[in-house]
Each structure stands twice: as C-alpha cells, then as structure tokens.
Design a protein that fits this description.
- By secondary structure, the chain is of the alpha/beta class.
- About 50% of the residues lie in helices and about 10% in strands.
- The protein has a 6-stranded mixed β-sheet, with helices on both faces.
- Helix 9 links the parallel strand 3 and strand 4.
- Helix 1 packs across helix 2, helix 6 crosses helix 7 and helix 7 packs across helix 8.
- It is globular.
- It starts with 20 loop residues before the first helix and ends with a helix.
- The N terminus is likely disordered.
Length: about 290
C-alpha cells in the first residue's frame, strides 16, 4: 500500500460504528489502515468512508461469525482492503481500453451482445452511460458496435454503407458527408470507398465494419475480434486508432482470444471462461 503519509482533516474520526458492536471491533483494530488504503485511491474522505461501511457490513454478513477471533479479523481486514479498492477503482474508471479475453466459447460475444442491446439478460438490467436499449435512438447514439461476422447489404459500396448508418442516426446531409469521409480516412479506406464491399478483402471488410462503428463518434465502442484478418501493417494502424480514440475520451471494449494481443491493446483486462468471470484488473496483475 506504500508508505506515503496522508494528512486527514482534524474533524475526521475513525469511530463511526452506527451502533453495530461487531463493526466496533473491526474499526478499532483495522479501520484506519483500511481507510487510508481506500483514501489513497479515492482522494475523497466521504467516498472512502461510505465504501468501507458497505464493504465491512457485506463481509460480516458473509462470514456469519459472531465471535470474531484473530483469524477472522485478519481475513476481514484483508478482504475489506481488497474489496474497497476494487469498488473505488471501478468508480474511477473512465475512458480507456478494456480487453475481454478468453478461449472460444467463453462468453465474450454473448457479453458484448448483451452490452450492445442485441440480447436481453434473463435477470437484472444493463446500462451504458446510464442509458438502456429501451430508448434505442438515444442509446445507439452513444454506442458503436463492430461484430466479428460479415453481413452487408448486397451491392453496397463502403462509402454508402457508412453513409447509411449516419442517415439512420438522423444526421444532416452535410454532417453525414463529413463524418463518412472522416471515418473512411481513419480506417484507410478512402481509395476503396466507392468499390462494392463484396469485392473487398477480409481485412478491408474488417476495416469497413470498424468505420461504421466509429462514424457517429460514440462514447462507447464494443469491438468483437476487431483485428481478425488484418495484415501486420493494418493491425498496427488499427491499434493506433484504438489508442487515439481512448485518449480522446472514448471507452473501448475489445474482445480477443489471444492474450498477447490484449496485452498490446488494453489498459485493463477481463478474463472469461465458460461464461464465468475468472479475473479482472490491469494487464500486469492478470499475467501475474
């Protein structure tokens, strides 16, 4: 957790127990240590305190142990630190690239389809930037989706394909023309823009799918195996585009079954297997 000293305001105390005797034990022995770890991540006293309250309560409920000895206390302290930091880091996660990795059949595409509103969850609900697919005209203005599968209208050129997506979003003719050109330029398809997609190579089809995903400048991008079929030069260009988009404030979720590919791209990683979350965190932590 580091040795950096943190000075807290004089009025802050570590004795808030809200009338819960078991919490008093934990707070007396461990609260300051855990609080400081959480405070380093959050930078906010109130956020750190609120998270610790809920985390300690949840851990106590899970432990089902009303007679806290030294071993349960050590467990709860360690678990409280880890859980608190996970919650606070999740709160602070902003734009960037999240790699979704796992073997074929692990559930990557299913998760992406759920996030993109193409499938409905059996339970609960999924929100993207506080929006749900119940208002598609608003939801899809904020989200771009690139499937791993090819499916294009017969006879359509690359230019017309991207243009039609922008028209569906309701952009004016002038805005549509400008955004179409920009998207095609970003994926290096201006020269082939007016050729039929049916005549494109695998790598070109992959890039035109990416162009339609980014053309309306969404804040969230869901990209399913977007590097498949690209030659080394095109892969390098597309990876650079991903970084450019993330640095400009977009959040990208990119799936792959190749770990070293995710290592090149991602700021953080979510590892799936057989539909279960196996691990998540920064790339170095997952590799360790």
């Amino acid at each position: 957790m580091g040795d950096q000293a943190i000075t807290l305001p004089d009025e802050h105390t570590f004795t808030t127990t809200r009338g819960m005797p078991l919490l008093e034990v934990l707070y007396r022995e461990h609260h300051e240590r855990v609080f400081l770890a959480a405070y380093r991540v959050s930078g906010s006293i109130q956020d750190a305190e609120d998270v610790l309250q809920s985390v300690f309560l949840r851990l106590l409920k899970q432990s089902r142990n009303q007679n806290l000895g030294s071993a349960p206390e050590r467990y709860l302290c360690r678990a409280a630190i880890n859980s608190s930091l996970d919650v606070l880091r999740a709160r602070r996660r902003g734009p960037g690239i999240t790699g979704l990795v796992g073997p074929n059949g692990s559930g990557k595409s299913t998760m992406m389809n759920l996030i993109a509103g193409l499938m409905r969850p059996n339970r609960g609900r999924i929100e993207v930037l506080g929006l749900t697919v119940s208002k598609p005209e608003i939801f899809y203005r904020q989200l771009g989706y690139c499937t791993q599968y090819d499916s294009f209208p017969a006879g359509m050129t690359g230019h017309r394909f991207v243009q039609s997506i922008l028209e569906i979003h309701g952009y004016s003719n002038a805005a549509t023309d400008m955004l179409t050109q920009d998207a095609l330029q970003r994926v290096d398809l201006l020269d082939a823009a007016h050729r039929p997609i049916a005549a494109y190579s695998k790598g070109m089809r992959q890039r035109i799918k990416l162009a339609q995903a980014i053309c309306h400048r969404p804040k969230v991008l869901i990209l399913d195996e977007p590097l498949n079929g690209l030659d080394p030069m095109a892969r390098a260009q597309v990876i650079a585009l991903f970084r450019e988009l993330a640095d400009a404030g977009a959040s990208l979720i990119i799936s792959s079954h190749i770990l070293h590919e995710v290592d090149l791209i991602s700021d953080r990683v979510v590892l799936l297997n057989s539909g279960y979350l196996v691990a998540e965190g920064d790339v170095e932590g997952i590799k360790g």
